[in-house]
Amino acid sequence: MLRDREIKIVIVEDDLYYNKALKKYIETICDEQIYRKYNFIIKSYLTAHECIEELEDDTDLMLLDYYLVNKDDDEVLTGEDVLDEVNKHCHDCKVIMISSQENPEITDQLKQKGVVQYIDKRVNTKNRIGAEIKKLIQQQYHAA
């Protein structure tokens, strides 16, 4: 079946287990039987550096962790650093920040930089992510 549009979703999460679980969950909720018009391309990265190196200008949606630990890199990058690169290159990309950081000033700063939603990892995360993705798909692409 021919699809009307590709929707590119990127996950940036340094915890391997959580990364894989998020990817599996996103694949489940972005079921092409439900969204028949769309072909979903879902990529995941464990580090900020990997994501930035492979960032595509036509990325539609990013799920981004704030704390990104990578012991192999000399330069420590946060989700905010990734967000800055997204803002430079992916002008239409919607970013959902997923983190357990608790500083409301950081959360406000991220929203001012364009984060469409901040989701606390400790509070009903999967349901909130699913609802936000469905809402964004419906708003952006007028899906049923």
| Approximate strand percentage | 15-25%
Q: Output the strand order for the largest sheet.
A: 2-1-3-4-5
Number of domains: 1
Shape: globular
Residue share in helix: 40-55%
Task: Name the CATH architecture.
Answer: 3-Layer(aba) Sandwich
Decide which structural class fits the backbone. alpha/beta
Write the element-wise H/E pattern from the N-terminal end onward: EHEHEHEHEH
Main beta-sheet annotation: 5 strands, parallel
Top-tier CATH class:
Alpha Beta
- For the termini, the CA-CA separation is 18 Å
CATH fold label: Rossmann fold
Mean pLDDT: 88
Strand segment count: 5
Structure write-up:
The protein has helices spanning 16-29, 48-54, 79-89, 104-112, 125-141; strands at residues 5-12, 38-45, 61-65, 94-99, 115-120. It is globular. By secondary structure, the chain is α/β, with parallel strands linked by helices. Helices cover 40% and strands 23% of the residues. It has a five-stranded parallel sheet with strand order 2-1-3-4-5, with helices on both faces. The chain has a single domain (5-141), classed as Rossmann fold. α1 links the parallel β1 and β2. The chain has five helices and five strands; from the N terminus they run βαβαβαβαβα.
Compile the SSE list and pairings.
Layout (H helix, E strand, L loop, with lengths): L4 E8 L3 H14 L8 E8 L2 H7 L6 E5 L13 H11 L4 E6 L4 H9 L2 E6 L4 H17 L3
Parallel strand pairs: 1-2, 1-3, 3-4, 4-5
Helix pairs in contact: 2-3
Note the main attributes of this structure.
144 residues, alpha/beta, Rossmann fold, 5 helices, 23% strand
